[in-house]
């Protein structure tokens, strides 16, 4: 595959020159300050670069490609659907892939979540969730309840409402302070996943919620794992506390399961760590196995009923590519493959558990290294938190020399590998991360 896909040096330079001057990449300047690495093919858990090198993808393409690349089951699902229809508007129409996917999601999510709204991306699914909460309160005759209660350290996406519930101080959206809606923030959850809950922090949550009770529309959080806000793991007790506060103040609990859903943290849903059930849930990323962009927002029958009986007569949202048949078809195949419902006997729990064990063993030696503040593992997530922000290109040069693709950010060198990685492949990832940590 590598030999067939490789480009010659002149072709690579032309591609990079145009990319540098005209193609704007995530969170980067224009023109580009550093060259990106051209990928020409991917198969299994490996990316093939234009120069013929192959790299183990330790990022699952931003946590989505849990089955790796070119999986025959997912390829077949796309090929079958493209022979029927690639897209049809969802306004006034429906189709089997969407209905089948909604049925799967209702079956796989906690029992009260019975209504499914399809969105284009994870960010949009959070926008939809926030819109649900606001319309719900308005329909109940409580328009003054228009602010979101959350904790600092979170990340929920890059669209406008999403940015307002991301960390307002240390998050990537502080540039928009002053124009975003002002939400209600508690301190970041203290300690780690296994730490005993801090009574003082529980008191802070309770007092803050009580002080703003009359204006809270909903409580929103990432369950147990705060993703792009800092890759922190927190005690399930704090999630239970947020559930209790939502009940006490009569507001919905929104859980953003976009990064944590579908087994990534060791339980199928992040909320399972705490044994809680949200009123609104956002899912995405691994939903389609990384093949196409798609997400969903699920809610209870009660929330859907109240919204639908309100002044709008329904939820005021409708993306052009909502419930795209190609994406829905591959999402169905991905979920059936992940849960073993396709008859192939996949065991996501065993896969994630095996990855977790290798990550824990392989990253253990980084604890106590100069420049390393903390090393932590939960499920198929491994994180080295450094004392100072890392030089991303320099770290990537090291990890790529070990045959591994990682994408550090700020002071985090981390991995979320595909579930189908072998122990040897996960060990290669940890070796690359250890080398990076030793270079600090």
Automatic annotation (TrEMBL):
Protein residues bound to substrate: 62, 155, 285, 318, 407
Biological processes annotated in GO: biotin biosynthetic process
Residues involved in pyridoxal 5'-phosphate binding: 122-123, 256, 319-320
Subcellular location: Cytoplasm
Residues at the site labelled Participates in the substrate recognition with KAPA and in a stacking interaction with the adenine ring of SAM: 27
Top-level taxon: Bacteria
Primary location group: cytoplasm
Quaternary structure annotation from Swiss-Prot or TrEMBL: Homodimer.
Role according to the record: Catalyzes the transfer of the alpha-amino group from S-adenosyl-L-methionine (SAM) to 7-keto-8-aminopelargonic acid (KAPA) to form 7,8-diaminopelargonic acid (DAPA). It is the only aminotransferase known to utilize SAM as an amino donor.
Protein name: Adenosylmethionine-8-amino-7-oxononanoate aminotransferase
Organism: Thermomonospora cellulosilytica
Lineage: Bacteria, Bacillati, Actinomycetota, Actinomycetes, Streptosporangiales
């Amino acid at each position: 595959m590598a030999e067939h896909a490789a480009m010659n040096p002149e072709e690579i330079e032309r591609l990079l020159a145009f990319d540098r001057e005209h193609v704007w990449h995530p969170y980067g300047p224009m023109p580009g300050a550093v060259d990106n690495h051209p990928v020409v093919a991917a198969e299994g858990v490996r990316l093939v670069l234009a120069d013929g090198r192959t790299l183990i993808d330790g990022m699952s393409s931003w946590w989505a490609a849990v089955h790796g690349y070119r999986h025959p089951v997912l390829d077949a699902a796309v090929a079958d659907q493209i022979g029927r229809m690639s897209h049809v508007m969802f306004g006034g129409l429906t189709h089997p892939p969407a209905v089948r996917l909604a049925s799967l999601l209702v079956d796989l999510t906690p029992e009260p979540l019975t209504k499914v709204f399809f969105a284009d991306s994870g960010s949009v699914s959070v926008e939809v969730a926030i819109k649900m909460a606001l319309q719900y309160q308005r329909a109940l005759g409580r328009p003054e309840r228009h602010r979101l209660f959350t904790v600092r350290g979170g990340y929920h996406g890059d669209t406008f409402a999403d940015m307002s519930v991301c960390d307002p101080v240390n998050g990537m959206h502080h540039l928009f302070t002053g124009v975003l809606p002002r939400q209600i923030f508690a301190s970041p959850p203290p300690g780690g996943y296994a730490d005993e809950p801090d009574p003082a922090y529980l008191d802070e949550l309770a007092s803050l919620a009580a002080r703003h009770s009359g204006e809270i529309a909903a409580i929103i959080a990432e369950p147990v794992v705060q993703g792009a806000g800092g890759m922190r793991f927190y005690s399930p007790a704090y999630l239970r506390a947020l559930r209790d506060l939502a009940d006490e103040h009569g507001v919905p609990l929104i859980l953003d399961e976009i990064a944590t859903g579908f087994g990534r943290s060791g339980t199928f849903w992040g909320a399972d760590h705490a044994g809680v059930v949200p009123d609104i849930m956002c899912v995405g990323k691994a939903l389609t196995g990384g093949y196409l962009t798609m997400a969903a927002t699920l809610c209870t029958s009660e929330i859907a009923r109240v919204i639908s009986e309100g002044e709008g007569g329904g939820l005021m949202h409708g993306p052009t590519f909502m419930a795209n048949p190609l994406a829905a078809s591959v999402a169905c195949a991905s979920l059936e493959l992940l849960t073993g419902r396709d008859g192939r006997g996949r065991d996501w729990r065993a896969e994630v558990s095996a990855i977790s064990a290798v990550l824990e063993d392989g990253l253990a030696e980084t604890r106590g290294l100069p420049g390393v503040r903390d090393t932590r593992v939960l499920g198929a997530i491994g994180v080295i938190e450094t004392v100072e922000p890392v030089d991303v290109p320099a770290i990537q040069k090291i990890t790529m020399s070990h045959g591994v693709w990682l994408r550090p950010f700020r002071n985090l060198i981390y991995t979320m590998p595909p579930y189908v990685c072998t122990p040897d492949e996960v060990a290669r990832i940890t070796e690359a991360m250890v080398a990076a940590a030793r270079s600090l």
